[in-house]
Amino acid sequence: MTILREEAIYKLANHSSYRHNDTEILDWSNGDPPTEEEIETTRLEMQAEYDAQEYARKREVEYPSIQECVHAILDDTLDALQAKRASVKLKYPKGG
Question: Which residues of the chain have pLDDT under 70?
């Protein structure tokens, strides 16, 4: 997923009301609007944060479901559950 310019503007707005088009900010209610450089810097920071969490998004898909966890507790098969979680963590390491 690519973080869009509009998402960076929204983050920078921080309770300001604003209006913009594809190329410029038309209205900004609180103080001066952000510069294009500030918008792009924020967008790049947001993109880096999103990209850094890719491992977590991949893990979430393969981790045992809540139902599987409940059944593991009730059926006393926690070792198998932990093994499954460990294999997913190994497959998608943090920062990897």
Answer: 96
